[in-house]
Amino acid sequence: MTTIILYLSFIASFFGHDNPQLTVHVKNIKSLKGEIIIGVFNTDKDFLKDGVAIKNYTISVDEVNETIVINDLPKGEYALSLYHDENSDNECNRNFLGIPKEAYGFSNNVKPKFSAPSYEECKFMLVENKTLDIILLH
């Protein structure tokens, strides 16, 4: 009987979802058009470089405060970057100096001063259910 219980426990843990839930509230959305694009990084190597996020999520903007619930990240260390792709061209449009023309934000609500923030500034631990409030910068 003990063997059957252990076997069933193993099967349940294999198929069960033990990933923590990450809830992201995006605040300070000024227009109800386009999408919020979220990039998830788990290392400082290539942080914020195009095409290297380990996961990307896209949500259509239809509220002033959007919420996305992420359930497919295993426990670990992460950093998020996001932007409001108002014109739905799938890129964060920038001016000639490289400064985003579309609203953007980072985990820990890091506000860049003279350059992009570092992974260290934006990182957080996801070991249990967590909620992040990220305020878009304009």
Description:
With 138 residues, the chain is mainly beta. The chain has one domain: Sandwich (Immunoglobulin-like). It is 13% helix and 33% strand. The chain is built from 2 helices and 8 strands. The strands form 2 sheets. Strands 2, 3, 5, 6 and 7 form a 5-stranded antiparallel beta sheet that branches. It is globular. The model is unreliable at 1-14 (pLDDT under 50).
Strand content: 25-35%
Average pLDDT, to the nearest integer? Answer: 89
Determine the number of helices (DSSP H or I, runs of at least 4 residues): 2
Low-confidence stretches: 1-14
**CATH architecture field:** Sandwich
Largest beta-sheet details: 5 strands, antiparallel
Overall 3D shape? globular
Question: Alpha-carbon distance between the termini?
Answer: 62 Å
CATH class: Mainly Beta
Binned, the helix content reads 10-25%
CATH fold description: Immunoglobulin-like
From the alpha carbons, calculate the radius of gyration and give it in angstroms: 18 Å
Structural class estimated from helices and strands = mainly beta
Number of separate structural domains: 1
Order of helices and strands: HEEEEEEHEE
What is the tally of beta strands?
8
